[in-house]
Design brief:
114 residues, 4-stranded mixed β-sheet, two-stranded antiparallel sheet, globular
Amino acid sequence: MPCIHIQTNQKVSAEEEKSLREKFGEAISLFPGKSESWLMFLLEDDCRMAFQGKTEKPMAFVEIKLYGDVDKGASQKMTARTCDLLKEILGISSDQVYVRYEATENWGWNGSNF
C-alpha cells in the first residue's frame, strides 16, 4: 500500500508525468514487498514553494507513505533514486529536494482496513 506524493514548483508536462509515474512505479520495489500494483502516485506541479527563503530554483518535496515499517536501507536507496529521477526528468538538483517517509499500521482500502 505505498503512496508517493510529489510537490514541485516546476510545471510538469504530460510526458514528464508519465515518465515519473513509470519510474517511481519501478523504484517502489526497493522496499521489500512493495510493488507498482498497489502504488498510488500523486503529483502536484507548479506549487508555490520556497527553500532556504528562495523561490527561484527548481525544488520538490516528496512524501513516501508505506503500510508497515520503513526499512532504513531501502529508504536510503529510495532517497538516492528519488533524487536521481527528479534530476533526470525535471532538472531538480538533489540539494533542493526533501524526502519524507511515513509508516503506518492503519491503512484502509476498499471499505475496510488491513
